Structure formats: structure tokens, C-alpha cells
């Protein structure tokens, strides 16, 4: 069977609803995997590709940042990893003829699903000023255009260089080097919308913005709390680790407004028993209200402090700072206020406490349910307080586990993709390359949009991602992007950002993870860092989608040569020929990468140092792990309103839509659904199956509306609603962000439902 052609547009969005499921993976998952993969890749390429995912000599799965088990199965991938691979390894192609047939105005009317389904982009494309469609352009001309616009800027800070977290360490290192040599720290990345809150909270409290546990730790834990995360869809391989932990006696508490199928029960497709029976994962489900987590952990902390012998006094004395202030604040925690903030029963919290006290080794895992709130940073700091109280950091089976999204988002930050780089990093970079990096901070994602909107930024360059699709306040963001002089997207597939452009625009097609990368110096590989600080190599084995594709490192190196010219002493040409020479430089600039080339050559790679995990060493301002005592916050909801979270369906990867089903939640054939508790829906006058417009309410008084959502009566926490992103990004105000991290608060949008004119 060869690949199937994509479906037409408008894609019918007519959601069908059945009862949600209570188990994830198992046989149906395998069927879905193969069906989707074969539609994109045909049978032969499917087999050839999927067998190389996450093998020690293969490529790193572009699906998520969850680490690989040391003992690998022949098929070390999951349903959603396979979809991510199929999406990239597809045999469908977007050629210059396609762009000739589809003017930009036409592309702008298409759904994200349709755009993505067209296939891999095969040639560099250029939209000239005033033109109505993209034309093929040579790479030489493309680099000249970028150089023209970048050199014409009044200041380097009028350029913005965005990164999405699939970019390899090598490409990321070159991009930040180029930006700094050019003269700006404007290096926003998807992390700004993702785990920035985790980074902020962890850096302040334990001195490093990364998780402290390994897979081994998960297997050894007594208690794993999974808060604000849906691993069944977004990190399916994590279920294998949870299953192992359970088999060794661990208990699991899930904290979530939704009963997520993967957390309820997991049918491991890689073991015969698992496939049929499956394992119950969650022992205690705390169905919390959106944004109630800080209050929950604060009360648990008070109860721990008030229980004789529950606090690890030695650890607190030897390794922490600020206990007294924190304990005083915790003692003020109030049962009634906590029950109101969380919507939980007293008995459920008491049960949780009993499990916490019974555990000698506790891990807390979290993702977007904790990071995308106004008070995300103090919430995560409260999680750290919770772990510090019982010494649950820096010993086996215990620690913090922020579960990262994009497969190399953590590595990109390690490589210096950061708008607020540490001075020590810049010092090392300057010394190695003989440059003078700017020391003033650059723009993050939200600030970049404001700068484009206000005419302070004029050139926008994206290394991957779908900036206008992923960012908040769609109308504002799109208008901002249209004000740019030049927008450039290094991309594998079409997306909304190619249709919403500056006066001039470029699409630069690039190799993906699965593609073979051959340069003058021979066959190349790249490296990535997973969610647990393991660095390993990734090498594709497929013939690229077209002979015109350039790799990401080569694109950056050639851009740098075009812009900086002979004045740059950096050996950009050498970097292009042999990525090993980039790794040599990384080894001299980034701590933990000493002898990089030799160590990454070992099967499985190597682990980066982590002070708290390795030696209870905390490089904070106090030299200890810091307890912190922020006031407890939780969202206040006006009468007749709902608090909306914007989340992922089972058939999407961020703004890439694989299909229109969300199998575990019982939704099929459409994405415009809003999940509301039956009692809330009825009180607001919406029957199951009725259609509503979602209207968000924000203090600026601007009306933001997402029309035509089918109301689904669903067992979510009271007062809370859920709908998919990116369709709902139009509702998230640009300045509704988390304190300190400036991450869009896309999990707490106050909305009202209005009867919909469009069914
Ligand atoms: N297949 C697939 N895999 C992916 C992705 C994808 O789109 N598709 N995206 C990748 C990326 S970039 C990321 S960051 C991760 C995202 O992984 P997740 O964070 O799991 O993604 P979301 O769909 O945003 O789900 C948020 C979860 O938190 C819960 N939640 C929301 N608000 C709250 C709250 O206030 N408190 C609590 N306790 N829970 C809450 C929601 O009900 C939901 O279960 O996944 C990565 N992996
Ligand atoms: N409302 C709301 N908004 C959110 C979120 C939410 O939960 N709610 N989540 C946020 C989060 S956690 C994240 S991480 C961001 C995601 O933001 P982004 O990372 O910007 O978005 P993606 O949809 O992952 O990007 C998809 C595009 O990347 C390109 N691409 C894929 N692979 C490659 C590659 O190998 N190289 C290159 N150069 N390009 C490639 C393809 O062209 C594809 O169209 O969205 C954020 N936005
Ligand atoms: Mo993310």
C-alpha cells in the first residue's frame, strides 16, 4: 500500500461523542498506530522507520522528551510517537507547484490540519513584497534577503530568533552563537510557553531548573504524585515506568480536574499480560479544580509539619534555608479555604496525607497543568517545599520531575537558547569565540509579540515551530506578525505561520530527525537531551524529502556567513562540514559537556551533572535548598462563568493535528468541543450536544470569542471547562501570564458560554 492523498478542506468538524475510556494503550493503540503511519508513509517505509525509533543506533523520537528505558524493546515507541514519526516521514510533498496553486490568502483560510496534511516542503520559497504567493527561490538568494533585512535594522535587538524544542543541540548552539555575535539576546523559545515556570521555581529553590530524577528513581519510588499531566496521550512511554513502579509496590496519586484514561489504567502493548488485562495505575484520584494545586500542597505541608516525626529534621537543618518563615506561613493554611480552592473532600486530602506519610521516597511529576497559571511559579515552589520537608531530594526514588514536552526543549536551553542567559555562560562563549555578547536581556515569547506589535522588532526568524499557532491572543499576534519587515520559518511542514507573514517572507525547508544527513565531512549525527538530563545521539536513516533540503546547523552557519561576513572569526564553514567540530566547541563552553564527542559515542550517551541529585549540592543564593513562603492564590470565578483550560487531544502534537479524534475522552470526528460538568452546563442552560460560543473575559474589556463549540457533558471538576488548543488561543489574552515566568496562563481562562449562532 502506498501513501494516501490528504483529505480536502474545509475538513468536516462535526464532533461525535461517546463515553470516555478508562484505560490507555493496548491493542486498539497498535491498530491506530499502523493505520495512521501507513496512510502517510506506505507499508515499507512504515516498517523501516518505526523499527529505528529510540534504538541506540537510531533516531530520537520527535514525539516527547521522556527518556528511553535502558533495556530497549525492538519497538521502543508508542502510538503517539509513531504518529509524530509518520507525520515527518510522510511521502506527501509540498512543491513549488503547490504554492503556485495556493496564494497566501488561500493558505490563510485553511485549517491547521489541512496545512499539515499536505506533506513535506521540498524547496526554499519566497514571498516578495506585494506578491500574492510564494515562489521558489535559491538558497543563495534566500540568505541574501535575510542579510539585507538584518543589516538594515537600526539595532540587532530589532531581530527576534525563535526556537521550537525539536532543534538539535548542535543547531541550537549555533543559533544562539550567531544571535549573540550579531548582537542580541532575543532568543525566545517554546519553553517560554511551556516549562518556564518550572525553570523559574526550581532555579530559585534548588539552584538548577531541571528535574532531579532518573527512570531508575521512578522504579524505586514509594509514592509518585502526577499533578497536572496527561501521560496517556502526551508521554505514553511514562506509563511503562509507572507500571514498573507499581509492580515494585509504589502508590500513585493523580491530581487532575479530569479523569484521564492513561492514569486510570494502562494496557502495556509491549507485554502480553499488559495488553489484555492492563494495570490500574492511580490509587488515589484527587479531582482538583483548575489552579487549586498550590492550596492543596500548602495544606499538605501544614499537616506534615504538624505531624510528630514527619519532617526530616536532619535534612532541613543541613541542606535547607528558610524553614521557619515557611513553617509559619504553612501553619496558617486553612481547611475551609483549601476545600473551596480545590473542590476536594476533606477525607480525600486526609487519605493523600496518609499516603505521603507512609512513603519514604516520593516523586512529584508535573506538566502544563501546573505551569500555565498566573500563580504557576509559587505553585511549583510549594511542590518543592513539599518534597524538601521529608528530605525527598537527592536520594534514590525521590525528587522533582517536571516532564518536558518537545524532545529537545531541555537541551536547547542547556545550549544557551535563553533570552536571559547567565553571565557565566556568556563569559565562556565570549572567551571561546573572541566575541562580545550583549549582556542586556532579550525578549521572551510574549515580549516578542509585543515588540512586533509596537514596531520595536522588524525581523522574525523561527527555527521550527508554529509561532502564530502556538502563541496566545491569536488576533493580536497575527496582526503583530503582519507588521514585520521579514518573517522566516525553517520548517519541515506547512503551518499557520507560513500564511501570516511580514512584508516579505521565507520558508526554508529542513531535514527532520528521521532524515539522513550527509555533509562534506561524511554522514552526520546530532545530539539531544531528554527530560532527565541524558544526552545521546540521534541519526536518521531515510532519504530526505527532496535534494534541496538543508540541515538546521547548515542553515544557521550559512545565515551567519551571509550576515556577519569575513568580519566573523568563527569557523562557520568548518561547522557545516563536520558537526563534531561544533561539539568540540560546546565541550569548552557548556559545563557538563567535557569530552563531548567521545562520551556521546558510547551507546546510550551520558548523563549531565545535577548538583541536588548527585550530591545534595544547591547552587542557590544561600547555598542551600530554599523553602519559600508565597501567599496562597487560586482563581476567583465570577457568577455564571467557567474556568477554561486549553489542552491537547489524543490526535495532535501541539499545533500539528494528526486527526480529529480524542479516543480516550470519547470524542470523534471534530475538535470544536468544550467539556463541561453536567451540573454546570445545565445551570448555564446548555444541554449535552448544544452549541456555544466561548467568550473570554479579561480586565482589558476586549471581547475575545471562539465560536461554535459543541458542549459535551463531561466528568470534569466543578466550575471548570476544557477545550483544545490551538483553536482556543484566540481566547487567551496576551498579558494574562504567569508571574515571574511570563508564561501564558492558558490553563485558566475565565469564559462565559453564549448560545451559538453557528452550529
Ligand atoms: N501526543 C502528544 N504528545 C505531546 C504533545 C502533544 O501535543 N501531543 N505535546 C508535548 C509538549 S510540548 C508538552 S509541554 C507536553 C504536554 O503534556 P501535558 O501537560 O500532559 O499536556 P496538556 O494536554 O496541556 O494537559 C494538561 C493536563 O493537566 C491537567 N490540568 C490542567 N490544569 C490543571 C490544574 O490546574 N491542576 C492540575 N492538577 N491539573 C491540571 C489537564 O486536565 C491535563 O490532564 O506533551 C508533549 N507531548
Ligand atoms: N492555549 C495553549 N497554547 C499553548 C499550549 C497550551 O497548552 N495551550 N502549549 C504551549 C507549549 S507547552 C508549547 S511547547 C508550544 C509549542 O509551540 P511550537 O513548538 O512553536 O509549535 P509546534 O506545533 O510544536 O510546531 C510545529 C511545527 O514545527 C515544524 N517542525 C517539526 N519538526 C521540525 C524539525 O525537525 N525542524 C524544524 N525546523 N521544524 C520542524 C513543523 O513545520 C510544524 O508545523 O505551544 C504552546 N501553546
Ligand atoms: Mo511544551
Report a brief summary of the structure:
The protein is α/β, with parallel strands linked by helices and 759 residues long.
Protein architecture, described:
- It is a single chain.
- This protein has four domains: 22-88, no CATH class; 94-194 and 409-598, Rossmann fold (3-Layer(aba) Sandwich), CATH 3.40.50; 196-407, 3-Layer(aba) Sandwich (Dimethylsulfoxide Reductase, domain 2); 642-755, Barwin-like endoglucanases (Beta Barrel), CATH 2.40.40.20.
- The chain contains 31 helices and 33 strands.
- The strands form ten sheets. A six-stranded mixed beta sheet has the order 6-5-18-17-16-7.
- Strand 19 (518-519) and strand 20 (522-523) form a beta hairpin.
- The mean pLDDT is 94.
- Bound molecules: ligand MGD (2 copies) and molybdenum atom.
- Molybdenum atom is lined by residues 190, 194, 405-406.
- Residues 63-64, 80, 194, 227-230, 233-235, 255-258, 260, 288, 290-291, 293, 367-369, 405-406, 645, 647-648, 652-654, 747 line the site of one ligand MGD.
Characteristics:
alpha/beta; Rossmann fold; Dimethylsulfoxide Reductase, domain 2; six-stranded mixed β-barrel; 31 helices; 16% strand
Secondary structure tally: strands: 33
Q: What can be said about the biggest beta sheet?
A: 6 strands, mixed
| Domains (count) | 4
Bound molecules: ligand MGD, molybdenum atom
**Architecture per CATH nomenclature, i.e. the level-2 architecture of the largest domain:** 3-Layer(aba) Sandwich
Name the overall outline: globular
Q: What is the C-alpha radius of gyration, as a whole number of Å?
A: 25 Å
| Proportion of residues in helical segments | 25-40%
The top level CATH class name of the largest domain: Alpha Beta
- Please give the alpha-carbon distance between the first and last residues: 38 Å
How many DSSP H or I helices? 31
Q: What fold name stands as the CATH topology of the largest domain?
A: Rossmann fold
Low-confidence stretches: none
For the largest beta sheet, what order do the strands appear in spatially?
A: 6-5-18-17-16-7
**How much of the residues is beta strand, in percent?**
15-25%
Which structural class best describes the helix and strand composition?
alpha/beta
Average pLDDT confidence is 94
Oligomer: single chain
Amino acid at each position: 500500500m502506498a501513501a494516501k492523498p490528504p483529505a480536502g478542506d474545509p475538513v468536516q468538524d462535526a464532533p461525535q461523542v461517546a463515553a470516555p475510556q478508562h484505560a490507555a494503550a493496548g491493542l486498539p493503540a497498535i491498530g491506530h498506530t499502523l493505520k495512521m503511519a501507513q496512510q502517510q508513509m506506505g507499508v515499507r517505509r512504515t516498517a523501516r522507520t518505526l523499527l529505528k525509533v529510540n534504538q541506540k543506533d537510531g533516531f530520537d523520537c520527535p514525539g516527547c522528551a521522556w527518556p528511553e528505558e535502558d533495556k530497549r524493546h525492538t519497538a521502543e515507541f508508542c502510538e503517539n510517537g509513531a504518529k509524530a514519526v509518520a507525520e515527518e516521514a510522510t511521502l506527501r510533498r509540498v512543491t513549488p507547484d503547490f504554492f503556485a496553486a495556493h496564494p497566501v490568502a488561500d493558505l490563510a483560510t485553511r485549517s491547521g490540519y489541512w496545512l499539515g496534511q499536505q506533506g513535506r516542503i521540498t524547496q526554499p520559497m519566497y514571498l516578495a513584497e506585494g506578491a500574492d504567493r510564494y515562489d521558489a527561490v535559491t538558497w543563495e538568494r534566500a540568505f541574501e534577503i535575510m542579510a539585507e533585512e538584518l543589516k538594515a535594522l537600526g539595532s540587532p535587538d530589532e531581530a527576534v530568533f525563535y526556537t521550537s524544542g525539536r532543534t538539535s543541540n548542535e543547531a541550537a548552539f549555533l543559533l544562539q552563537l550567531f544571535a549573540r555575535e550579531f548582537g542580541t539576546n532575543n532568543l525566545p523559545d517554546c519553553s517560554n510557553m511551556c516549562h518556564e515556570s518550572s525553570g523559574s521555581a526550581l532555579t530559585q529553590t534548588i539552584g538548577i531548573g531541571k528535574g532531579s530524577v532518573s527512570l531508575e528513581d521512578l522504579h524505586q519510588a514509594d509514592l509518585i504524585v502526577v499533578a497536572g499531566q496527561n501521560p496517556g496521550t502526551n508521554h505514553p512511554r511514562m506509563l511503562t515506568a509507572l507500571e514498573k513502579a507499581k509492580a515494585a509496590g509504589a502508590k500513585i496519586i493523580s491530581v487532575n480536574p479530569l479523569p484521564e484514561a492513561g492514569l486510570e489504567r494502562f494496557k502495556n502493548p509491549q507485554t502480553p499480560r499488559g495488553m489484555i488485562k492492563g494495570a490500574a495505575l492511580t490509587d488515589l484520584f484527587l479531582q482538583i479544580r483548575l489552579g487549586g494545586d498550590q492550596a492543596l500542597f500548602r495544606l499538605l505541608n501544614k499537616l506534615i509539619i504538624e505531624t510528630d516525626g514527619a519532617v526530616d529534621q536532619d535534612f532541613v537543618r543541613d541542606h535547607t534555608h528558610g524553614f521557619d518563615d515557611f513553617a509559619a506561613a504553612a501553619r496558617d493554611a486553612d481547611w475551609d479555604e483549601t476545600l473551596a480552592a480545590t473542590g476536594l473532600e476533606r477525607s480525600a486530602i486526609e487519605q493523600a496525607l496518609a499516603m505521603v506519610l507512609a512513603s519514604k521516597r516520593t516523586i512529584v511529576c508535573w506538566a502544563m497543568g501546573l505551569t500555565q497559571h498566573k500563580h504557576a511559579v509559587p505553585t511549583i515552589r510549594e511542590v518543592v517545599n513539599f518534597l524538601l520537608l521529608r528530605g525527598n531530594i537527592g536520594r534514590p526514588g525521590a525528587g522533582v520531575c517536571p516532564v518536558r514536552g518537545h524532545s529537545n526543549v531541555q537541551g536547547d536551553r542547556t545550549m544557551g537558547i535563553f533570552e536571559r542567559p547567565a553571565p557565566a555562560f556568556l563569559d565562556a562563549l565570549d572567551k571561546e569565540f573572541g566575541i562580545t555578547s550583549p549582556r542586556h536581556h532579550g525578549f521572551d515569547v510574549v515580549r516578542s509579540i509585543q515588540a512586533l506589535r509596537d514596531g520595536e522588532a522588524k525581523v522574525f526568524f523561527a527555527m521550527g515551530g508554529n509561532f502564530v499557532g502556538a502563541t496566545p491572543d491569536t488576533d493580536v499576534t497575527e496582526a503583530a506578525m503582519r507588521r514585520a519587515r521579514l518573517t522566516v520559518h525553517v520548517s519541515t511542514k506547512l503551518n499557520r505561520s507560513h500564511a501570516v507573514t511580514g512584508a516579505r517572507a521565507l520558508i526554508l525547508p529542513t531535514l527532520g530527525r528521521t532524515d539522513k544527513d550527509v555533509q562534506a565531512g561524511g554522514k552526520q549525527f546530532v545530539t539531544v537531551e531528554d527530560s532527565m538530563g541524558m544526552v545521546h545521539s540521534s541519526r536518521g536513516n531515510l532519504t530526505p524529502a527532496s535534494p534541496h533540503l538543508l540541515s538546521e546547523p547548515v542553515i544557521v552557519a550559512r545565515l551567519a556567513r551571509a550576515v556577519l561576513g569575513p568580519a566573523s572569526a568563527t569557523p562557520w564553514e568548518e561547522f557545516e562540514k563536520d558537526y563534531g567540530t561544533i561539539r568540540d566547541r560546546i565541550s569548552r563552553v557548556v559545563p557538563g559537556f567535557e569530552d563531548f564527542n567521545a562520551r556521546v559515542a558510547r551507546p546510550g550517551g551520558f548523563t549531565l551533572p545535577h548538583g541536588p541529585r548527585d550530591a545534595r549540592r544547591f547552587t542557590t543564593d544561600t547555598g542551600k535548598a530554599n523553602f519559600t513562603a508565597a501567599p496562597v492564590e487560586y482563581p476567583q470565578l465570577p457568577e455564571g462563568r467557567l474556568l477554561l483550560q486549553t489542552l491537547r487531544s489524543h490526535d495532535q502534537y501541539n499545533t500539528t493535528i494528526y486527526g480529529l479524534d480524542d479516543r480516550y475522552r470519547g470524542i470523534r470526528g471534530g475538535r470544536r468541543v468544550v467539556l463541561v460538568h453536567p451540573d454546570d452546563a445545565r445551570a448555564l442552560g446548555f444541554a449535552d450536544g448544544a452549541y456555544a460560543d466561548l467568550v473570554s473575559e479579561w480586565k482589558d474589556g476586549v471581547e475575545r470569542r471562539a465560536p461554535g463549540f459543541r458542549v459535551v457533558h463531561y466528568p470534569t471538576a466543578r466550575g471548570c471547562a476544557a477545550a483544545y488548543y490551538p483553536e482556543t488561543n484566540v481566547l487567551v489574552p496576551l498579558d494574562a501570564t504567569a508571574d515571574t515566568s511570563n508564561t501564558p496562563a492558558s490553563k485558566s481562562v475565565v469564559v462565559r458560554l453564549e448560545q451559538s449562532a453557528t452550529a
